[in-house]
Description:
Blueprint: E1 4-12, E2 15-24, E3 31-32, H1 35-41, E4 44-53, E5 59-71, E6 74-82, E7 89-90, H2 92-98, E8 100-103, E9 108-111
Parallel strand pairs: 2-7, 3-6
Antiparallel strand pairs: 1-2, 1-5, 4-5, 5-6, 8-9
Amino acid sequence: MGHVYIDIFIKGEKGKEKIEKILVDTGATFTFLEEEILKKVGASKLPTQIEVELGDGKRVLANCYAAVIEFENKEVPSIILTFPGVRRVVGIETLEALGAIINPITKKLEFIREKGLAYFY
């Protein structure tokens, strides 16, 4: 299918930062960003760490943050993980919160439910 990249904003208590051409990785559970960005925008650090298995099989301990991700004027809360040497990706949990999928033909994100609507069961 190829790689899909999007532009997003990350928002926290201190501000908002645009991140251009971030890889959308449907194989990643969470979104991953550098800790410097998370601190700069004032993302909320969660009192836990999680072990993450990377694509090469290596395991690392990641810090967890919560922030708002904005894509095409839609904002959603997101858990974002970070560790030294992290590679920026938007993971499936953020896509699910956005209500978005990758269209394999256009290689773009498309919304599968109306903006601003979240499901509750």
